[in-house]
Design a protein that fits this description.
Nucleotidyltransferase, domain 5, alpha/beta, globular, about 220 residues
Length: about 220
């Protein structure tokens, strides 16, 4: 199966192609609120857009939470391709994709992974997931939290993943090697496809978390 995946964040852009078990990916830093340079990303994987898009089985993208500009640009771009080529889009939470990537670093299961990414105005996106050797389950859904709330979570005996934790004091349980990229988005999308999950192209909009949807974490 051939899946083209994107993870476009506020400070990075990433593309990955999964082709029958082989994953080729590229990531590059980006300026906040900068629109993705699609031609540049395709070129770094030596992909010719018209050729690769005609051979895809599907598209996948990290649909948030995150930068409004980056997420909206990605969704609009991929929806147009999906419609023109009649292929599905697989929306994947970037927080969940990071937790899924952490699976490769675990020695034993099950394990709970707490993911935190930077949000605007000194806030953070947080979610937690339970990993087994073959599956992932949501423990707490994505929320916006403060640095004080994040510090309380970090002080607990839990495994931490994501750039959000870097702004706090160093933690021995932080997996710094696990970083956001499109490879984990493609891998998790394929996991769900193999489980028989189906996605509808009309329900692939980005996840926007803002102060209007602010949810306090349980203390």
């Amino acid at each position: 199966m051939k899946i083209l995946a994107f993870d476009i964040g506020s400070n990075y852009s990433s593309i990955a192609l999964h082709d029958d078990g082989n994953i080729n990916s590229f990531s590059v830093p980006a300026s906040p609120r900068q629109r993705p340079d699609w031609e540049y990303l395709f070129s770094k994987l030596e992909l010719i857009p018209n050729q690769i898009l005609n051979s895809l089985d599907g598209l996948a993208y990290a649909n948030g939470p995150g930068s409004y500009t980056a997420l909206r640009s990605t969704a609009v771009f991929l929806k147009a391709i999906a419609y023109a080529k009649n292929i599905p889009i697989f929306p994947i939470s970037n927080l969940e994709a990071l937790a899924w990537q952490a699976k490769d670093w675990m020695d034993s299961f099950p394990v709970e992974i707490n993911v935190a990414l930077n949000a605007d105005q000194g806030k953070f996106y947080h979610a937690s997931y339970k990993l087994s050797s073959q599956n992932i389950e949501t423990v707490s859904s994505p929320k916006i939290c403060s640095s004080e709330e994040l510090e309380k979570i970090a002080n607990k005996d839990k495994i931490l993943v994501g750039e959000g934790w870097l702004l706090l004091s160093d933690k021995d349980n932080l997996l710094k090697s696990v970083q956001a990229n499109a490879s984990s988005v493609a891998s998790l999308a394929l996991h769900y496809i193999n489980q028989g999950n189906h996605f509808d192209n009309i329900d692939v909009d980005p996840i926007y978390l803002s102060e209007t949807t602010f949810k306090k974490l349980n203390s």
